[in-house]
Write a structure and sequence with these properties.
This protein is an all-beta fold. 0% of the residues lie in helices and 53% in strands. The chain contains no helices and eleven strands. Strands 2, 4, 5, 6, 9, 10 and 11 form a seven-stranded mixed sheet that branches. Strands 1-3-8-7 form a four-stranded antiparallel sheet, with no helix packed on it. A hairpin with a 4-residue loop joins strand 7 and strand 8.
């Protein structure tokens, strides 16, 4: 199993980013997927989930309708579109399925 995140970077407050997670080595199209994040000095926290058939759920209130999780089963790709970013969204974002984790991609939001 391999999960490889990309798309992180430095963005100004109010900006947007789209994270991607390339999945391989397992039955992606029949697997639920999740995004987590770990802010500096804090515990990892769940951000969003999507079932194999596209049903989504989000951590509230800090996601607050700003983030959208999606998937492309034809490409074995998971996405997280993040809008209206704030410095509090600064974290390493990782994708997850079952007990498998990617290494994460760093998102830094400047004020």
């Amino acid at each position: 199993v391999q999960l490889v995140e990309s798309g992180g970077g430095l963005v100004q407050s109010g900006g947007s980013l789209r994270l991607s997670c390339a999945a391989s080595g397992f039955a992606f199209r029949s697997s639920g997927m999740r995004w987590y994040r770990q802010p500096p000095g804090k515990e990892r926290e769940w951000v969003a989930s999507i079932t194999d058939d596209g049903i989504t759920s989000y951590a509230r209130p800090y996601v607050m309708d700003r983030f959208t999780i999606s998937r492309d089963n034809t490409k074995n790709m998971l996405y997280l579109k993040m809008n209206n970013l704030t410095p509090e969204d600064t974290a390493v974002y990782s994708c997850n399925t079952q007990t498998y984790w990617g290494k994460g991609t760093l998102v830094t939001v400047s004020s």
